[in-house]
Amino acid sequence: MTIQMMKQMTKQISIIIPMYNAQAYIKHCIGSVLDQGFEDLEVIVVDDGSADDSCLVAGSFGDGRIRLVSQGRKGVSWARNTGLDLAQGRYIIFMDADDQLLDHALKTMYDTISSNKADLAVFGYINEKNGVKYEKRFEAPETMGRDAAFIQVFRNPAFRGVLWNKIFVRERMEESHIRFPAGYTHGEDLVFVTEYLKQCTRICVDPRLVYMYAENPNSLCRQMYHVNAFNDNYLILYEAEKAVYTCISRESSAVLHAFAFKHVETCIDILNRLAHFGLFRHQKVKEISKDVRKHAKQYLFTRDQYPKKWINVISVLLISASGPLFMRVYHVVKKIAWSLGFRSKV
C-alpha cells in the first residue's frame, strides 16, 4: 500500500512508537494501547534496525490497527519522522517502547484536546525510577497561550519538553512540516516541542495521569558518572538547546528568561560531567562557560517560579570567573565527597 493510499484512511489518533531491541518491553507497551478500548486509532511501530525479536513480538498481536514498519539503524528521530510521514490520525501521540499508557488515557487525552479545540494538550504522568513511582502533574486544569506554555516547557517538571505526556494536532505539524532533527540522540524532543509550540495559540493542561514513563538506568544520561569515560554524545543536548534558543530568539523576554534558567543548569551539569573525568581542557569548556556568562545576570537576578539551588548560584559565580576553575573546584569537592561515601545517584 502506498503512502498516498494510506493517507486516504483517516483515524482520530495515530500513536507512533519507535522501537530498537525492545523485545522485553514492546508487548506491554502495545498492550497498554489496545486495552484502552479506543477503536478509532492506529499504532505505528517503527523498528529502527533491531537485532533481537522485537519485530516478531510487535507483529504477534493480529490487530489490524497495528502497522509495523522497519528501517535500517538510523536513530529515534528518523524513526519518529517515518511514523509521522505515514500517520493518518487527526491527533498524534508519541510513546517510547518501554513505557505504557495508564487506564483511560486515550479517552482522557482525546476528550480534552477535542472539546477545548486546543492545539496541544499536556497531562500528568508517573515517572518510575529504580522501582519507585513519582507523580508529576499540574495542580488544576488550565488553558494558556504560547508564552505561558513556553515558560512551562523550560521550568515546570510536569510539562517539560518531552513528547509522551502530550497529544498533538497533526494538521499543525503538516502546516510547517515540523519534523525531528535527524542525528540527535539527546534533546530532539525539546527541539520538536519548541518548533511545534510556535504554531500554537491555545494549549490545555490537565492534572490527570495518562502515562507511565520508565526511566531506564542504562540510558545515556544516567550512565555518565558510572562509565570509564565521558560520552561526547551527551553534548548533543547542549547543541539541541542552542537550536532551541535560535528558534525562540524573537519570543518575549519572559520566555527568554525561562530558557536562560534551563540552559544555565544544563551547562553546569555538562561542566560537572566533564570535570568528573578531569577533562578541564575539553574543546567545549570555553564555549559552554561563555554561555553561562551570557545568561548569568538573568539567572542570578531574575525571579523564578522555582527556588534556585544555592549550589547552582555558586556554580554560576565560579563559572563566570573561570570555567576551568569551577571544574577543578568541583572535581576536588567530588573526590572528597566520594571518599567519605557520598556518591551521586545520577
Order of helices and strands: HEHEHEHEEHEEEHEHHEHHHHHH
Number of helices: 14
User: What Rg, in angstroms, do the CA atoms define?
Assistant: 21 Å
What CATH calls the topology of the largest domain is: Spore Coat Polysaccharide Biosynthesis Protein SpsA, Chain A
Folded structure, characterized:
The protein has 346 residues and is α/β, with parallel strands linked by helices. The protein folds into 2 domains: 8-214, Spore Coat Polysaccharide Biosynthesis Protein SpsA, Chain A, CATH 3.90.550.10; 220-339, no CATH class. Helices cover 45% and strands 19% of the residues. It contains 14 helices and 10 strands. The chain has helices spanning 3-7, 26-34, 54-58, 76-86, 105-115, 146-155, 170-175, 188-197, 220-223, 235-248, 253-276, 285-301, 310-321, 323-339, and strands at residues 11-19, 41-48, 66-71, 89-94, 100-101, 120-129, 132-136, 142-144, 166-169, 203-214. Strands 1, 2, 3, 4, 5, 6, 7, 8, 9 and 10 form a 10-stranded mixed β-sheet that branches. α3 links the parallel β2 and β3 (66-71). α12 packs across α13 (310-321). The longest helix has 24 residues, at 253-276. The model is unreliable at 218-225 (pLDDT under 50).
Task: Please specify the SSE layout and strand pairing.
Blueprint: H1 3-7, E1 11-19, H2 26-34, E2 41-48, H3 54-58, E3 66-71, H4 76-86, E4 89-94, E5 100-101, H5 105-115, E6 120-129, E7 132-136, E8 142-144, H6 146-155, E9 166-169, H7 170-175, H8 188-197, E10 203-214, H9 220-223, H10 235-248, H11 253-276, H12 285-301, H13 310-321, H14 323-339
Parallel strand pairs: 1-2, 1-4, 2-3, 6-10
Antiparallel strand pairs: 4-9, 5-10, 6-7, 6-9, 8-10
